[in-house]
Amino acid sequence: MLAILKSLFHNPKREAKRLNRDAATIIDSATRSFPIERVRDIAVMTLEHLSEADEHLQAHTEGREQVLYRFQSLHREARRRMDQVALTAYTLVIIRLRAQALGALCAPALAAIDEFTGQWAHAAGNGPQHTLE
Fold it and tell me: The pTM is what?
């Protein structure tokens, strides 16, 4: 009985499918909805926070849940402030961290986020125009 309940709530294939779909949808929405400067700011902010998360995960092997919790808190705060740039960036960071944990099942999500950040981080200007408060 416990195995059935656990399989209903923790299904890696289902989660991977959702993450793959969400990454593509969020990136598509951001590139269509925001001006180039804001899309670039999202990419830069995403890269900065992914770098920070990777540094933490290298230093603390059991820290993935802590890192996820931190970015979920930042995500909630960005939603309260109605900061669409930060909200989108934190969403992509959370998706990437969860996708990394699932590995090959989430290759499309990982590739989409890498492609987005690689393409847009250098699209316009020399530095991020969005600052955290």
Answer: 0.82
